[in-house]
Design a protein that fits this description.
There is one protein chain. The chain is an alpha/beta fold. A hairpin with a 2-residue loop joins strand 7 and strand 8. Helix 6 packs across helix 8 and helix 8 runs parallel beside helix 10. It is globular. It binds zinc ion. The site of zinc ion (ZN) has 6 residues, from loops.
Length: about 400
């Protein structure tokens, strides 16, 4: 039998848009099954303080051991901050990354920042794949081991999804020599990210999350109908009926057989405290029916993103991570406001299916707002709201906690 790496790119069957059926068994683990009602989790990144940004900037000029000696205590601080905020599920704050996708591309190799584009009126250059990626071994293993070894909480580690990377980093003018088509690129990414996800589980990570804000483009009606956008990279020939199943199939290949809970996060991208795209999640929901994931983490707090009625379309096998804390605005929501939004979800879905999170990660790019103090305050309010909701929805007596009647 041929080893996976010896199979020519187009033999893996990803071009077949019929979705694989999900098995009955959930990928939840003992530890994630024990999480409480309305448990709280982060999406991934925490704002990087200036000292962390400075350290990352000096990475190439420092001996590796010195860099690690300086960075490890910073990451420990990010871990302790989340524990003190009261979160049930934590990440490493992604403080070892320059940015949630770029770091992966940097470590894998094959990308160059050479494609000019305009974004919100600014002229920029973006990376594109220009050479075939060389993945000899997973690139996040050590980062994941450090997180798992330094907390008792349930851990989460996020990876960029193949569709997101294909959508943003393949361009016909620059990438054809590396990968003749988007599909060839997608198939190699699936292979690399599958190995990466397996390595995370081997390192002791409980939840693997695939980040795919590009799937949310299909929720933006103006972008889909008229191509209206302030980001030149989004002017593409969109074909939801072909592309969404391809994206989901790629995710299914990565999730298949993984001994961890698997999440998918679809947000509206954050840039300078604003969303890049707009629209509720209804167009995406039907495509989640056959996904081999456990939970989908969506945004509900920021205007123009999800609305609670979207949840009536959530397929039965999925839990929801409700974004109930706005990561964009400077205003701090009252704890009661956060509770109210989560309760609107619980009016549609059983609270057992609901976890609570900020809309998105807190660090869209280096140096962007908010500050770490703002994030800590928002996370603390999130966990306070979750505690109040548990009190409201659970009866606790000598036999242990039970759902109150009337909420089911
Ligand atoms: Zn996000």
């Amino acid at each position: 039998m041929k080893r996976r790496s010896e199979i020519p790119a187009c033999d893996l069957g990803l071009l077949n848009v019929t979705l694989d059926k999900k098995d009955d068994k959930t990928m939840k683990t003992k530890r994630t099954s024990a999480l409480p009602l309305f448990h709280t989790h982060v999406i991934g990144s925490l704002p990087r303080p200036k000292v962390v940004l400075d350290l990352i900037a000096r990475r190439e000029e420092m001996p590796a051991a010195d860099y690690q000696r300086a960075m490890d205590p910073m990451v420990l601080f990010a871990i302790r901050l989340q524990e003190l905020a009261g979160l049930d599920v934590i990440s490493d704050g992604e403080w070892r990354r320059t940015q949630y996708i770029q770091e992966f591309l940097h470590r894998i190799g094959g990308y160059e920042r050479c494609r000019p584009f305009t974004h919100q009126g600014e002229q920029k250059f973006t990376s594109v794949v220009v050479r075939r990626m060389k993945a000899t071994e997973p690139v996040f293993t050590k980062d994941a081991q450090f997180l798992a070894a330094n907390t008792d909480r349930v851990t989460k580690f996020a990876l960029p999804s193949p569709f997101l990377i294909v959508t943003r980093y393949w361009h016909e003018d620059f990438s054809r020599n590396a990968y003749p088509t988007r599909q060839h690129f997608m198939e190699h990414l699936v292979e690399i990210l599958s190995a990466e996800a397996q390595a995370l589980v081997g390192a002791g990570i409980d939840i693997v999350q695939l980040d795919d804000p590009a799937l949310t483009y299909f929720c933006d009606r103006k972008l889909m109908e008229k191509g209206e956008t302030h980001d030149e990279r989004l002017r593409q020939d969109w074909d939801p009926e072909r592309q969404i199943p391809e994206a989901m199939n790629a995710i299914n290949h990565i999730a298949d057989g993984l001994k961890a809970e698997v999440h998918l996060h679809c947000c509206h991208s954050v840039y300078k405290r604003m969303s890049d795209v707009t629209g509720d999640y209804k167009p995406l929901m039907p495509y989640l029916a056959d996904t081999k994931i456990d939970r989908v983490n969506l945004e509900f707090a920021y205007t123009g993103t999800g609305v609670p009625s979207d949840l009536s379309l959530l397929p039965d096998h999925l839990g929801i991570g409700m974004g109930v804390v706005d990561v964009r605005g400077e205003r701090l929501q009252e704890i009661k406001e956060i509770e109210k939004l989560a309760a609107a979800g619980a009016a549609i879905l059983s609270p057992e299916r609901i976890a609570l999170n900020p809309d998105c990660g807190f660090a869209p790019d280096s140096g962007e707002p908010p500050t770490i103090d703002e994030a800590y305050e928002k996370l603390s309010r999130l966990t306070a709201a979750a505690k109040n909701l548990r009190d409201r929805f659970l009866d606790t007596d000598e036999e242990g906690p039970r759902m109150k009647r009337g909420h089911g």
